[in-house]
Amino acid sequence: MAMPTTPSVPAPRTPRRLRGRTNTELYAWMFMRVSGVLLVVLIFGHLFVNLMVGDGINALDFAFVAGKWASPFWQIWDLMMLWLAMIHGTNGLRTIINDYAERDQLRFWLKVGLYTATTVTIVLGTLVIFTFDPCPPDAAAELLPSFCPAP
């Protein structure tokens, strides 16, 4: 008795957008985990200093921010928080776009908009942090931090 032969079934095709990929998705996945942990530390540190130390929320004003950003430590802290939050969120939205946008052209334009918005926000935020003038010449004296020279 002859054994029945099974018909040959072609191997499933890999979608065009997944061919030739490197480990980008693995690195993006690992980045999300690491940046998530770092963001928790940065955000809770930010909230603790702004809301619990000193007079708490009553102390939050221009002088408080000016005094804080006079220190390179807090500039770097806030810069890391900004960059990590923006890149973390962008990576999450990129994943959602890849999962739900079915047409290649729509996916492309959604990502262009996402990356453009992210780049503009990161550049403007970085400029604000590093070009912030805590002693503007036209500010009222009672609003200036104590380290500013008297006008």
From TrEMBL:
Where are the bilayer-spanning segments?
A: 26-49, 69-87, 108-132
A GO term, aspect molecular function: metal ion binding
Residues of the signal sequence? none
Note the superkingdom of the native organism: Bacteria
Query: What UniProt keywords are attached to this protein's entry?
Result: Heme, Iron, Membrane, Metal-binding, Transmembrane, Transmembrane helix
* One Pfam family per UniProt: Sdh_cyt
Annotated Gene Ontology cellular component terms: membrane
SUPFAM superfamilies associated with the record: Fumarate reductase respiratory complex transmembrane subunits
Q: Does the keyword Cytoplasm apply?
A: no
The yes or no answer to whether the keyword Transferase is present is no
- Where does this polypeptide localize? Membrane
Q: Which InterPro entries does the entry link to?
A: SQR/QFR_C/D (IPR034804), SuccDH_FuR_B_TM-su (IPR000701)
The name under which this protein is listed is: Succinate dehydrogenase subunit D
Q: The organism's lineage? A: Bacteria, Bacillati, Actinomycetota, Actinomycetes, Jiangellales
